[in-house]
Each structure stands twice: as structure tokens, then as C-alpha cells.
Amino acid sequence: MTRMDTHPIEAPATAPSAGGTSLHRFANPGRFLRLSGAVLPWLTAAAVALTVAGLGWGLLLAPTDWQQGDAARIMYVHVPSAWLASAGYFSLALASLFSLVWRHPLADLAAVEIGPVGAGFTALCLATGSLWGKPMWGAWWVWDARLTSVLVLLFLYLGHIVLVRAFDDPVRGYRSGAVLALIGVVNLPIIKFSVEWWNTLHQPASIKFTEAPSIAPGMLWPLLIAAIGFSLSFAAIVTARLRAAVMERRIRGLLLARAVSR
Amino acid sequence: MTHLPFVAISYALAFVVLVGFGLGAWLRAMAATKRLAAIDPRRERSGA
Fold first, then answer.
1. Checking CA distances to A79, which of A36, A58, A250, A256 falls within 20 to 30 Å?
2. Model's pTM, two decimal places?
3. Is the CA virtual torsion A24, A187, A195, A55 positive or negative?
4. How many angstroms separate the CA atoms of A161 and A142, rounded?
5. Distance, CA of A68 to chain centre
6. Per the CB < 8 Å rule, is B11 touching A59?
7. Of B28, B27, B9, B20, whose CA–CA distance to A121 is shortest?
8. Which residues on B lie below 8 Å from A71 (Cβ)?
9. A236 in a structural domain
């Protein structure tokens, strides 16, 4: 997509520790730009192909649900975005852990870039859930445990977005955001098990690792393809944003060096 | 009651989110690439 492999690179913000060499091998921004520059076009192509295939199949070819009719087709957008809302937050927490424990040079930037994308997918999950709920439940919103815990997840994302940008010293923002992200992880099992712990209007999971799926194969395959497509799209978007953030930091460093040398 | 408007809006929102974030990230990366190329001291030194 770009000519990043010929561009100057930024030295790591912190020196690799002796014990964490394997982790820090991928923390060098220059190496990240080279690797991601090679991977991103393929990742984007796969993301677009699978997302279009999954959503197209779900919208046009998948069978109509005998109870819910065509409204069940919202599932092909709602379920992958719900999966990405939680998985995205998990990746945000992982980046925050790397940031706090190993001072990973790219982890701070990764957390900053994951936040808005995760919030976007969470908002999409809530909006499509609402659009599904109105014809099925007769209400746009109910204070159901699953819906409420996902709303809390959206607020956690928004809090993280605001917090990392709230300090004059970016490092303080990164650290504060990382602490918030790690505390918020407690919400992920609550989201997952809310439909089992409480009596909810939201249906329980149709796909479990421990049991055969309770969904027809004609609906399952487009759903899985759409979920993989959304996941690759999330990864491609975050990678592209992270590449931009690394270059922007390098630009700021160069401009600052020029200003000081004058 | 037809559910198709709800379905259509859901897919439109998915399109907006995916294309919006994707296009935004791509434009931002392109702008950073050009800006970096313009002030890159290594390129100036090499005459590229």
C-alpha cells in the first residue's frame, strides 16, 4: 500500500530488556513498519473478500428464519460486531498490559488506536441489536443484563479514548488509560455470562466451544465467514492506524529536532 | 410488518463503520507517508 520500507524508522522508546528480547523484537517501530507494510495489503484483501462474502451470503442467500423472518439477517452484522466489541477490548487490555509491564514501545500507540475502532464496533453492535430488538421485542432498548453490560463496555472504550488524550504529558495519559483498560476487563466475563447468570430477554449463545451449534448450517457458515471477515477488518484497520501513528510520531520527532537545532 | 427496513439500516451501518474507519486509516497513513517523505533527512542526504 505504501513505501514504508524505504522510510526512516524511529528508535524504540525504551531499550529491550535482556529477558524480553523476543517480545521486543517486534517492538521496534521500523521493523513493525516493514512487516506491517508487507502484510497489510494481503490482510486488507482477505478482510474485504470475507466480509463481503459473509454479509452478501447472509443478506441474499441464507435461509429466512421460520420465527423471526428476515429480521434474523441482522444477525450477520450484529454477532460479528458483538464479538469484535469484546475481542477488541481484550486486545486493548493486552496492549495496556504490555505497556505497563514491559514498556513495549508500540503498545501505548496500539492501545490508543484500538480504542476508537473498538468503540465503533461496540456502537454498531448496540445499534444493530436495537434494530433487531424493535421488531422482535417491540422495544428499541431494555435494561437487560447483556445490553447493559455492553453499554458499560462502550463507556469503558469512550473513557479510555478521553483519558489517553487528557494529559499534557502523553505518557501519563497512556499509563492512566492502561490502568482503566485493565480494570475494565472484569466486564468481559460479565458480558459473556450475563445471559446465564441472570434471567435476560437476550437469547443465550447459539455457538459454544463445548457443544454443537444450535443454529442451522445454512445460517452458521455465513455467520462464521462474516465473523472472520470482521475480525480481519478490525486487524487491518488497527494496523493501518498504528502505522500512521508511528509515522506521525516520527514526524513530530523530526520537526522538534529541527526546531531545537535552529 | 416488514422487517426489511431494519435489515437495510443494519447493513448500511456496518458499511459506514467498516468503510469509514478503513478509509480514514488509509488516508491518514497516506498523509503521514507523504509528510514523512518530505522531511526525511535520510532521503535528503541520499538525494532520493
1. A36
2. 0.87
3. negative
4. 26
5. 29
6. yes
7. B20
8. 3, 6-7
9. yes
What is the value of ipTM here, to two decimals? Answer: 0.87
Would you call A59 and B33 a contact, using CB atoms and an 8 Å cutoff?
no
Q: Would residue A4 count as lying in a domain?
A: no
Cα–Cα dist A241/A230, whole Å? 16
Q: Is residue A247 part of a domain?
A: yes
Given CA atoms A228, A91, A115, A192 in this order, what sign does their dihedral have? positive
Structural domains in chain A (count) = 1
For residue B5, the distance in angstroms to the closest alpha carbon of chain A comes to: 9
Retrieve residue A39's grid coordinates: 502484510
Can you give the residue range of the structural domain that contains A36? 28-203+217-261
Is A17 among the domain residues? no
Q: What is the pLDDT along chain A (262 residues), one digit of tens a residue?
A: 333 333 344 444 444 444 445 556 666 788 889 999 999 999 999 999 999 999 999 999 988 888 888 889 999 999 999 999 999 999 999 999 999 998 887 999 999 999 999 999 999 999 999 999 999 989 999 998 999 999 999 999 999 999 999 998 989 999 999 999 999 999 999 999 888 888 777 777 776 767 766 788 889 999 999 999 999 999 999 999 999 999 999 999 889 888 888 7
Q: Which amino acid is at A45?
A: A
Residue whose entry in the numeric block shows the C-alpha cell 431494555: A142
